[in-house]
Design brief:
Shape: globular
Order of helices and strands: HHHHHHHH
Mean pLDDT: 88
Low-confidence stretches: none
CATH architecture: Orthogonal Bundle
Strand content: under 5%
CATH superfamily: Tetracycline Repressor, domain 2
Helix content: over 70%
Number of helices: 8
């Protein structure tokens, strides 16, 4: 019994150390996202990220093997946050119409409030067509996004129809995002109507 106490303390110490490491990685990633979303993957180096943050280049290399690993962590982090925000919006919907509306408004808000960050998602998705290191995380994130669309489509929807609806929503999202970034500024209610029109395919 007495031997278990030191082991317990070591386990707690290891868990605390792991939590601190995870917190530091998240802090580094948050800082890196600001640089990556502004300049894109190809035009940003770890040195650029270090220069725009309070972290040294050595610290970035300590937590991330290379720029690719940092980018994967960043994209996974913000897409998880995006999916959580959308899920929270649709959780309170009590009718199919209110479900569509909440989803549409969530997508519209993402474009208006966080266009530069979502631009980074399309950047890495394009990179995945050429660099296999990005393919697993792109597949993982797209699966979670398709899962959100499946909730909107409803239990009776087939896998094929969910894929079609996801493709339609994604295509409209990217088109509206590009317009927003190019200066064609539109408000959340206006953009939400565009998504509602697409979601009508699920009715």
């Amino acid at each position: 019994m007495t031997d278990q106490k030191p082991i317990g303390k070591l386990a707690v110490r290891a868990a605390t150390k792991g939590a601190k490491r995870d917190a530091k990685k998240r802090e580094l990633a948050e800082s890196a996202i600001e640089a990556l979303k502004r300049y894109g993957y190809a035009n940003t180096t770890l040195r650029d990220i270090a220069a725009q943050s309070d972290f040294s280049l050595g610290m970035l290399h300590y937590y991330f093997e290379n720029k690719e690993q940092l980018l994967i962590y960043c994209v996974r982090l913000y897409k998880e946050r995006f999916a959580a925000e959308i899920s929270a919006r649709i959780a309170g919907a009590d009718t199919r119409e209110s479900l569509f509306r909440a989803f549409a408004e969530g997508l519209a808000a993402a474009i208006v409030e966080d266009a530069d960050t979502h631009r980074l998602w399309y950047d890495i998705r394009n990179q995945a067509l050429f660099d296999p290191v990005f393919q697993p995380v792109v597949t993982e994130i797209e699966a979670s996004l398709i899962g959100l669309v499946a909730q909107i489509a409803g239990e009776g929807a087939s896998g094929a129809s969910i894929q079609v609806l996801y493709g339609a929503v994604d295509g409209v999202f990217r088109h509206l995002l590009e317009g927003q970034i190019a200066g064609n500024r539109r408000g959340i209610p206006d953009l939400a109507e565009e998504f509602c029109a697409v979601l009508a395919l699920a009715r």
